[in-house]
Amino acid sequence: MSPEALIDIFREALAVIVTIVSMIIVPGLVVGLVVAVFQAATSINEQTLSFLPRLLTTLLALMFLGHLLVQTMMEFFFEMVDMIPMVVG
């Protein structure tokens, strides 16, 4: 196996990881930013106020995007399984 092939596999794995993590984290970050702006505008200094909306947003993102996330991981896994003969041989 050439170093270029290993780098391509590593690059694709990182792309899959970044895609999956960003689908889960970005909605929570946006909601956290909106709540932080609201807290700054109203001078509410309650730390727990932003927790529940971010938690619910993350759970909703997992609920609605779970199928796409699992499909992405399965496609990557099947592609890696198909590459086993090239890597070994």
From TrEMBL:
Transmembrane segments: 12-39, 51-70
InterPro entries: Bac_export_3, FliQ
Keywords of the record: Bacterial flagellum, Cell membrane, Cell projection, Cilium, Flagellum, Membrane, Transmembrane, Transmembrane helix
Membrane topology, record value: Multi-pass membrane protein
Transmembrane helix is among the record's keywords: yes
Main location: membrane
Protein location: Cell membrane; Bacterial flagellum basal body
Highest rank taxon of the organism: Bacteria
Record-stated family: Belongs to the FliQ/MopD/SpaQ family.
NCBIfam families reported in the protein's UniProt record: fliQ
Function according to Swiss-Prot or TrEMBL: Role in flagellar biosynthesis.
Record's protein name: Flagellar biosynthetic protein FliQ
Source species: Shewanella algidipiscicola
Gene: fliQ
